[in-house]
Amino acid sequence: MSFFKKLFSNQKNDSKLSQEAKQTLDQGLEKTKTSFFSKLTKAVAGKSKVDDEVLDNLEEVLVSSDVGVNTTLKIIERIEERVSKDKYLGTDELNAILREEIAALLSETNSGEESEFIVPSTTKPYVIMVVGVNGVGKTTTIGKLAHQFKNAGYNVVLGAADTFRAAAIDQLQIWADRVGVSIVKQQMGSDPASVAFDTLQSAVAQNADVVIIDTAGRLHNKVGLMNELSKVKKVMQKVIPDAPHDVLLVLDGSTGQNAFEQAKQFTAATEVSCLAVTKLDGTAKGGVVIGISDQFQIPVKYIGVGEGINDLQVFNKYEFVDSFFK
Fold first, then answer.
1. Binding site for GTP: what residues are annotated?
2. What CDD domains would the database entry show (predicted)?
3. 117 and which of 62, 148, 181, 201 could share a cystine (Cβ 3.0–4.6 Å)?
């Protein structure tokens, strides 16, 4: 049995997406899939055997699909190993081989099989600090995340610690009102750490299950960013010693290689523990999910595959690969 088949045969039934969510994922990855396989078809046109020329063409396809150079080279090396073992590997098998290798890569970083929004039962409140540049869909992701957690039966509190922009506070308030969750905020220009402190105190008083803290979305110099985020974390730990339990970096999938640069900046500035990749439905650059997860060895926890309030999904590597190669 192939590695990929083993992965899928070992899935738990309860880890699968609902039919509606799976359909949304299929549609959200449609542009990426169409672009990728159009390029792949041209790469193997007129060829029956996987040879050096096909591999060179495949390398170009993967790089141009925003998988990233390092991850592309890793995939090519794995396929080269298979070609060396099987002297005649047909191009008609390339689709299945790619599917297996991408699934294997994602499995190295993304161990979770969940498809539902759950929080650790041993951690209350579960504190998420959200980072990312302006314009990537950070506030929208926080709002949708709050909605999903509330729908799952959790008591959610938001903290508006992006005090650099008045619009950031206002946008988070709109989402809090829309979703029906509590929000803690101060005036624009307030100390972000003070907002985070107040938010955690309020969450503890409310017996909240989940706290989501927004932070400034500007990429000023790395030292300044590091100092600000470190201060926010230290102040939160005065209320909850092991907070934050996750530092979630939000990346815009439609920016392709720029998302790699943002990941590089933020992973250098703070200990990012998981990723949310947004706007995958509007782009053919969905390959960034594979590349960023592999290159930075950080699990992708959530993906945005539509504009609807329910279109933020827990990342399930099996379902993602299945939709990508469907």
1. 132-139, 214-218, 278-281
2. FtsY
3. 148
Distances (CA, A) of 309 to 147, 262, 317: 8, 25, 22
Query: What are the backbone dihedrals phi and psi of residue 226, each rounded to the nearest 5 degrees, phi first?
Result: -60, -45
pLDDT single digits (tens) 32-90: 999 998 998 888 888 888 888 999 999 999 999 999 999 999 999 999 998 888 766 77
The enclosing H or E element of 258 equals: helix 257-269
Nearest to 148 by CA among 112, 185, 111, 181: 181
Q: Which residues are annotated as a binding site?
A: 132-139, 214-218, 278-281
Q: Where in the chain is the domain with CATH 1.20.120.140?
A: 3-108
CATH architecture entry for 126-316:
3-Layer(aba) Sandwich (3.40)
Angle at 292 between CA 243 and CA 65, to 5 degrees: 155
Structure token digits, residue 233: 């974390």
What is the b/e burial string over 119-155, where b = at least 16 CB atoms within 10 angstroms of the residue's CB?
beeeebbbbbbbbbbeebbbbbbbbbbbbbbbeeebb
> Residue 239 — φ and ψ, nearest 5°?
-95, -45
List where CATH 3.40.50.300 sits in the chain: 126-316
Q: What is the pLDDT of residues 108-118, one digit of tens each?
A: 888 656 678 99
Average pLDDT of the residues in 268-288: 90
- On the question of pLDDT at 173 being above 70, the answer is yes
